[in-house]
Design goal:
With 205 residues, the chain is mainly β. It contains no helices and 19 strands.
Length: 205
């Protein structure tokens, strides 16, 4: 886990009802439910009796064990977990294929989405998204170095940043290497030397 990333919590009696955040910045309380990480309110994407989706605050200390507390209308449960500098995770479907683009040709530019980049520059407030008027060059991007590989080959990154409307999610546009083999290949994103789990990309020609 890393500051700024999405965290899904599973359990029972976490919330009296299901509710999805309807605006940005994200709320820190819904249906009487609040989550604190080391005492800092965590923005909420979604709450339900069996699941909470939250953003880990950017203020969360790294390389340390932190305390997470869930308050469901006065009933509190706490757990601890470890937070690192980065913990990249690629958004993929149930078959581990990249979404929204599961296949591509060599040399094609495609996009993927990740969470868990850790600190970004320029900084964006916890729970917030960049303004729609922000130029591409001014969008928040990982402070640490980012590498994308397809198969065993490095991919050239055309764009990386948190785009307007996204909270805790970074878009990466990259070019499929011309030398990669046809067939199913693994795509890995590394932030600051920390690698994501591999996602699948089918190279068609």
């Amino acid at each position: 886990f890393a500051p700024g990333s999405i965290l899904a919590l599973f359990g029972s009696q976490l919330s009296p009802s299901a509710q999805t955040a309807g605006s940005i910045p994200l709320p820190v309380s819904m249906s009487g439910v609040a989550v604190l990480i080391n005492g800092v309110a965590a923005p909420l994407y979604y709450v339900a009796p069996g699941q909470l989706n939250i953003q880990i605050p950017y203020e969360t200390p790294t390389n340390s064990t932190v305390t997470l507390s869930i308050n469901n209308n006065g009933s509190v449960a706490s757990r601890t977990f470890t937070v690192g500098m980065a913990a990249p995770g690629i958004f993929m479907d149930q078959n581990s294929a990249i979404v929204p683009t599961a296949s591509a040709t060599r040399g094609q530019e495609i996009a993927l989405y990740i969470t868990g980049t850790g600190a970004v520059t320029p900084a964006v407030p916890t729970g917030a998204a960049p303004s729609s008027s922000t130029p591409l060059s001014g969008l928040p991007h990982p402070s640490q170095s980012t590498v994308v590989t397809v198969g065993t080959l490095p991919a050239s990154i055309a764009f990386i940043g948190i785009t307007p409307g996204l909270v805790g999610v970074t878009q990466i546009n990259f070019f499929v290497p011309s030398g990669v083999s046809v067939g199913t290949q693994q795509v890995i994103v590394s932030i600051g030397g920390i690698a994501s789990a591999p996602a699948k990309l089918t190279i068609t020609n």
